[in-house]
Design a protein that fits this description.
The chain is an alpha+beta fold. The chain has 16 helices and 16 strands. It has helices spanning 3-6, 28-47, 79-100, 103-107, 110-126, 129-137, 142-167, 173-181, 187-207, 209-215, 218-221, 237-240, 265-268, 289-301, 313-316, 326-347, and strands at 51-52, 55-56, 58-61, 66-69, 72-74, 232-235, 308-311, 352-358, 365-367, 371-382, 388-395, 401-402, 407-410, 414-425, 433-441, 448-455. Strands 8, 9, 10, 12 and 14 form a 5-stranded antiparallel beta sheet that branches. The chain has a 4-stranded antiparallel beta sheet with strand order 13-11-15-16, with no helix packed on it. The chain has a 3-stranded antiparallel beta sheet with strand order 3-4-5, with no helix packed on it. β3 (58-61) and β4 form a beta hairpin. α5 (110-126) packs antiparallel against α7 and α5 packs across α9 (187-207). The protein starts with a helix and ends in a 9-residue tail after the last strand.
Length: 464
């Protein structure tokens, strides 16, 4: 026996991914994606430059713990609203996926949108698909170096503008630009600008489909929300098979051929490099590039379009598609209820909030043996955009009065604390603990109230 026959074979389980060079194409879905991407880019890059009442329209001011969104300021106390909004977005994605598959990935996901932009830059600097492939195989030369350098400089420029805009939602963008120009940027500002520049440059320029296939969890659990009536990009193998090349004027049915001419253009335009003719795959992001490419070929051949199309598994199996089905209706109902709850919560959100805390050191103090004093701390949150003069009112049993000042001015967007002393005559016959209510009265805002307890000495105590 040969010695080599007994030795285990070493297999390299890591396979370096092949670079994908998507081919350019035209079509209605490409135009739709171009319009949608333009709107998303405009929304992202322009919103941070809009001012409302002298303040950036959307600004997440983390040091001040204030989130300014189109004239409304949200505080940490409103975190439940943010969580509720995120849940609504998640259910919206679930609903969209149950109905139309990964249409979010193909048309609106930032990773996809930026990848298409970077592919476009690659195309204008290095040429079409065959030219880029040929250029990659060539040894380094001055011409190749110039093309590659131009491409990467444009990539870095787009990545930097993206990072600048994103950081501008957390640091006022106008001041951020001034700090960059005057070289007065803080270390944290430099770090986050560099981080998001490299993240955009790496994800959209190098990783691309690797992010969608290996890093994004959505690709892995999307099948849980799919059923036979979910709209997906699919190849009609009943019509296309058996595939084969032929002349345009040939009678392909007489030759036993389907409509697929096996040109592989659907594979060449795919940004993730899959063959849609192999069936539904988790790598498919539903961008419909293969539909546009295949329809172009079908039109040139004189065949009906739709060999690759948006369809459902039920339709491909010659069954009726159920558009209104329990899963989809359940998602829609839950989404509608959550949106209504969020709207109601936003409408009931008060611009003035009050929280009453008792003095933790001493429950009560006896003054001159006939008066009992309790100390309360009023925590007042003014969420409005202007300061307010507030009157403090006490609703309590007879005899209880406020022994400290009863007015306070709270600045716009601030949290104030006011110490309030409440006194009452000592009477051993009244309960040890009694409810009291503090109310803040403003001429411009609805009143805010909060309850606490006034503590008296026990009836058998003597302070004479």
């Amino acid at each position: 026996m040969n010695k080599h026959d007994t030795e285990p074979e070493l297999i390299d389980l890591y396979q370096k991914p092949e670079k994908i060079h998507p081919r350019s194409f035209q079509g209605r879905y490409r135009n739709l994606r171009l319009i949608g991407g333009t709107l998303l880019f405009t929304l992202f890059f322009a919103t941070c430059w809009i001012n409302i009442d002298g303040r950036q329209a959307v600004l997440f001011d983390l040091p001040s713990r204030q989130f300014h969104i189109f004239g409304t300021t949200f505080w940490p106390q409103d975190l439940v609203l943010l969580c509720w909004l995120l849940i609504i977005c998640a259910f919206g994605l679930f609903t969209l996926t149950a109905f139309a598959g990964r249409i979010w990935c193909g048309y609106a996901c930032p990773q996809s949108v930026f990848s298409w932009v970077f592919i476009w830059v690659e195309r204008i600097t290095e040429g079409e698909r065959h030219q880029r492939m040929k250029l990659d195989r060539q040894p380094m030369s001055w011409a190749k170096l110039l093309r590659k350098t131009t491409k990467h400089l444009l990539w870095l420029g787009i990545a930097f503008l993206t990072a600048l805009t994103f950081v501008g939602y957390f640091i006022p963008v106008r001041q951020l630009v001034v700090d960059i120009v005057t070289l007065n940027l803080t270390p944290w500002g430099i770090f986050w600008l560099g981080f998001f520049t490299l993240a955009t440059y790496g994800n959209a320029g190098y990783l691309r489909e690797q992010v969608c296939i290996y890093m994004c969890p959505y690709a892995r659990f999307q099948s849980v929300m799919f059923d036979n009536d979910t709209l997906v990009v699919a190849y009609d193998d009943r019509r296309g098979e058996p595939r084969g090349k032929r002349r345009k004027d040939s009678d392909h049915p007489a030759k036993g051929l389907g409509d697929c001419i096996d040109c592989s253009i659907c594979v060449q335009v795919c940004p993730t490099g899959i063959d849609i003719r192999n069936g539904l795959q988790y790598q498919c992001i539903g961008c419909a590039a293969c539909i546009d490419a295949c329809d172009t070929v079908m039109n040139k051949m004189g065949y009906a379009p739709g060999l690759v199309r948006y369809t459902t598994a039920s339709e491909l199996q010659q069954q009726k598609t159920r558009w209104l089905r329990p899963r989809l209706l359940g998602y829609c109902a839950a989404l509608l209820v959550m949106i209504v709850v969020l709207i109601i919560s936003l409408n009931q959100r008060a611009a003035l909030e009050l929280e009453v805390l008792r003095d933790r050191n001493v429950l009560f103090r006896v003054i001159d043996n006939d008066q009992v004093e309790n100390v309360f701390v009023l925590k007042i949150v003014n969420k409005d955009h202007q300061p307010h003069y507030l009157q403090i009112q006490l609703t309590a049993p007879d005899g209880m009065t406020i022994a400290s000042k009863t007015s306070i001015v709270v600045e716009s967007g601030s949290v104030a604390q006011e110490v309030v002393r409440v006194t009452a005559p000592f009477d051993k016959d009244i309960p040890i603990s009694q409810p009291v209510r503090f109310t803040l009265i403003s001429s411009q805002l609805p009143p805010a109230s909060a309850e606490s307890r006034f503590v008296m000495p026990s009836g058998n105590s003597s302070y004479e």
